[in-house]
Structures are given as structure tokens and as C-alpha cells.
Amino acid sequence: MLTQVVNKIGILFIVNFNGHDLHFQEWKATDDSIYYMPLSTLVDNGYAYASKDGCLVPYENIYLLDEEDKLLLGVPQPYNMAMRLIGTSMLNASDFEYKVEFLSHVPDGELLSYEQCGNILIVNKKKYLLSEAQYELINRIHEFNSSPEEEKTTDFNLRNFGEIKALAEQAGCELDSYLANENVYVPERIKIEVGRDEDGFTIDPAIDIDENKKFQQYFDRMRKVQGQYPIQRENGERVRVVLNEEQKENLRHLKSQGGRHKTREEIQKIIEEPTEFFDPDAFDLSELYSDRVIEIGVYKPKFYPFICPYKSCWIAGATIESPQNGTSQVTISSETELENLRKEINKAKENGKSIIEYKNAQIDMEDALFLADCAAQQLKAPSKPFNAESVDNKKVLIIE
Hints:
By secondary structure, this protein is an alpha+beta fold.
């Protein structure tokens, strides 16, 4: 016969035969072998522990069993009543804590008296299994409540509240009116955007919410980086954007260098060595490598023209380096390829673009025109390199 014992680690499954408990491996030789297979899979993968007492499944690993196996093994039924999360004071208080209530229903159901062992809730002597989301929420609340009061600054409390509120929503847990009306956005990563306006080039932090423009205006308006930015939504609600310490520290560089407007050289330095300025774990740096950065003229791909031998003749080409595409080489070995290059140049001019796409490389318009000119001269006399040691102040490398 299979029985279950809830202890401080998890659920211990026990098979008793003729008055004594069997070692887990002995279950296979009894009529209770049906219980062996689902648990042995967990044991084999390190998610449960076999012993002379039976099989111990830690609380967090019970969710690895499918619903049929849970039913077979007598795992408690899912908790199907209500949860409510209450704040004991204001979020800016160092003694702030969370309290979880279990109710028959919300909003005005009967408060349930309960005991909790891991993810097992015992109500009126009946056991229930909390959902994975409910269990994660309770563990996160316990972690926060256990934090020392000296750590519970307003910023710390708000950052944790953002995570806890999201978990509560996933768990179907109701929040009290105070917590429900507090809106916090904690960006996991902040985008760094490069732009251009009538005053020059700009660089701004950006977050993934509808109120991003308001956040950027607030950030630009303040002389120092703030830990939180309260922003008004269109419906009148307030949302507080809360930054972590790493984000605040990195963004101070933007403030210390004179605000959002930067010179081309300053932005180029950031683009070439972004991790010198921003932690990639706290910032999304993908915008620094976007086509827009090149299109607005803040950064141009590096261009190194050359003349090299090809079969029995000499041809013109260039090495192109850009943050987005890395290093690539393009060569012009025929009139057809030269004509294709000129078509791309004309297409870019018609569309008002300063960058052309040619052979999977991005080339600045000025450099593309220079390459086309070099290629035209070389194709006229392919038997030897044309005299191109220095053309228009661009050094052309001759590759022997």
C-alpha cells in the first residue's frame, strides 16, 4: 500500500509490505510496482531520492509529474480557492512586509485557517497542492520579508514589488486596494537609442512601455539620474519606472558628459566600445548596430580600398568594417558588377539614403562612389594596377 508523508523537504512516498517499509528499489517486486515507474524517472534524472524509507520528491519537483501520475501517486489536488496579497504598511517604509491570505472566495470570502508545508496547503485537515506560480509567489514573498530593514529603501521595495505584483497576477492572486493601485515598471534591460534632431546627434535611454517618451523627457529634465521616475499615464494612473543600481551607474555617464546631445565622435566611441559604457546584462545595445545609426550619419562603415590580382588580371575592391555586419570584402571583377554597384548607388540617392547595400555589405555613399571610380579605371587597363597610391586623399592598398 502506498502512503505519503509531508516533511520539511518534500513528499516521501512509502510502500509498506507485511508491516515494514520497503526500500524504493524493492517496490518493483511487489503489487505496488505501478508506483515505481513515474518516480524512478525522477530518481534517474536526479529530481527525487531513493532510500530504504521510500522515495522523496522535493516540493519544487512535484510539478515534473504529469497529471495522471499525480493522481496515481495520491498527490493532493490543486488548491482551487482564493489568495489575497496584503501590504502591512506603505512601500516607502523600511518595515514594509507582505502578508498572504487564503480565502474561500474573493473579495469577501471566509478567511481560511491553514498550515503550509512547502507547496502543500492543509485546510481543515485536507491537503491541497499550490500551483507552481502560487508557490513561486510565496517563496518570493518570504525572501522579501526576510530582507533586513536597512536594505528596504524605497527603491529596493519598489523593484521587488514590480516582480511580486507580476508573480501575483500569474498566480491569480488578488491584491489589496493599495497594492492594486500601485503601478511599477522595472525594466530588465534599457535600450540605448541614437537619434538626430535640429540641434545635432542624441543618445537616450528607452524602455518598453507606452510612456517611453515621457520617461525620456523626465530623464533628460533631471540633472542627476534618479532611482525612480513617476510618470502619468493617459488614463490618469501613475506608473513608477524603477532602475537598478547598475542601470543608474551606467546612465550617470550620459549625464556627466553634458546630457543627451553628443558629438559624432562621442557617439562613435560608444558604438565602437559599447561595453565600456553599458553593462550588456542591464542594457539592450542592439540599437547601436541598427541601420538607423548609419543612416542618420552618426557612424559610417570603415572603408579600406585595395587593388588585387584576380585570375590573369587586376581588380578593385574594398574591405568594409561595421558593428552590425563585422568585416567583409567586396570586389568589382567585371563591367556587370560595376553596373550593379552604380545601380545601388542611384537607388540610394533616389531614396535619400547615405548608405548603399552591395554584396551583403553596407558602404557609405562617398566610399561607394570612390570604389566605383577605382573599379572603372582598373577595368579599363586590367593587366596591371592603375596608379592609385593615393586618390582623393584615400590610400589604396596594392595587394601583390
